[in-house]
Amino acid sequence: MERILAQLPDLEPGWVWLTGAGPGEAGLLTLLAVKGLSQADVVVYDALVDRSILDLAKPGAKLEYAGKRGGKPSVKQPDISLRLVQLAREGKRVLRLKGGDPFVFGRGGEEAMSLVEANVPFRIVPGISAGIGGLAYAGIPVTHRDCNSAVAFVTGHDATGEVPDSVDWASLAKGAPVIVIYMALKHIALIADRLRAGGRDKSEPVAVISKATTREQSVLETTLGACADAVAKSGIEPPAMVVVGQVVRLRAALDWLGAIEGRALQADPLGTRHHEQTGS
């Protein structure tokens, strides 16, 4: 491992690495993220970065919280970008650690543009997005050839905190067999209504994955018509991903975490294997 890490780029003084921490589980970090943590003088981290990941920072590294959570007091985005520039100009090795992937609904592009304007050198270190890794830990693939050959990723709120009007929800409902929605719990009733108005059936499977890949992960399986009430009654909390589509049914076969805990898995939840094997 040390030989592999030694061959990777170093985090140099005066540089900023915009780094994805993945959906939560420390084992899902990239090697480059691990190396950045081992070298950074300052780690500027988001609210969704798990403590087990921060524990990988080198001894003596300064940990600066820059979390942004909907409905709660948060550091303003321009102040975060300014702080990154300031630290880099002080000659610090700066690791900006963001949940998931910095370029997937993570404002990494905004922060990178600020670094460009300030002439601060930077590197982008991608991470596993919660929309893929979080679903995988719930036993839900984003694609499956018996269900879908396309998937759409969308945010459940815009910069104002409201459901984004820039999304054509009717076209999304018609064009994407699987829809993965980030930050959707607050507006799940309105989003479900818009998808149903666009033609999605109320009985379509829906899963809500809370605190994905962590020890506190929980999964709520419901339907598009019942999801708002189900979320309210369950008490499930953010951060959470919502996935709409027939791939949710595959969890009956692919809930590998449940299987580890003794849950029985269903071999063919879609009823397609027999037809595939017989050619009928």
UniProtKB/TrEMBL annotation:
<dbReference type="InterPro" id="IPR035996">
    <property type="entry name" value="4pyrrol_Methylase_sf"/>
</dbReference>
<dbReference type="InterPro" id="IPR050161">
    <property type="entry name" value="Siro_Cobalamin_biosynth"/>
</dbReference>
<dbReference type="InterPro" id="IPR000878">
    <property type="entry name" value="4pyrrol_Mease"/>
</dbReference>
<dbReference type="InterPro" id="IPR014777">
    <property type="entry name" value="4pyrrole_Mease_sub1"/>
</dbReference>
<dbReference type="GO" id="GO:0032259">
    <property type="term" value="P:methylation"/>
</dbReference>
<comment type="pathway">
    <text>Porphyrin-containing compound metabolism; siroheme biosynthesis; precorrin-2 from uroporphyrinogen III: step 1/1.</text>
</comment>
<keyword id="KW-0808">Transferase</keyword>
<keyword id="KW-0627">Porphyrin biosynthesis</keyword>
<dbReference type="Pfam" id="PF00590">
    <property type="entry name" value="TP_methylase"/>
</dbReference>
<dbReference type="InterPro" id="IPR006366">
    <property type="entry name" value="CobA/CysG_C"/>
</dbReference>
<keyword id="KW-0949">S-adenosyl-L-methionine</keyword>
<dbReference type="InterPro" id="IPR014776">
    <property type="entry name" value="4pyrrole_Mease_sub2"/>
</dbReference>
<comment type="similarity">
    <text>Belongs to the precorrin methyltransferase family.</text>
</comment>
<dbReference type="GO" id="GO:0004851">
    <property type="term" value="F:uroporphyrin-III C-methyltransferase activity"/>
</dbReference>
<protein>
    <recommendedName>
        <fullName>uroporphyrinogen-III C-methyltransferase</fullName>
        <ecNumber>2.1.1.107</ecNumber>
    </recommendedName>
</protein>
<dbReference type="InterPro" id="IPR003043">
    <property type="entry name" value="Uropor_MeTrfase_CS"/>
</dbReference>
<feature type="domain" description="Tetrapyrrole methylase">
    <location>
        <begin position="17"/>
        <end position="226"/>
    </location>
</feature>
<keyword id="KW-0489">Methyltransferase</keyword>
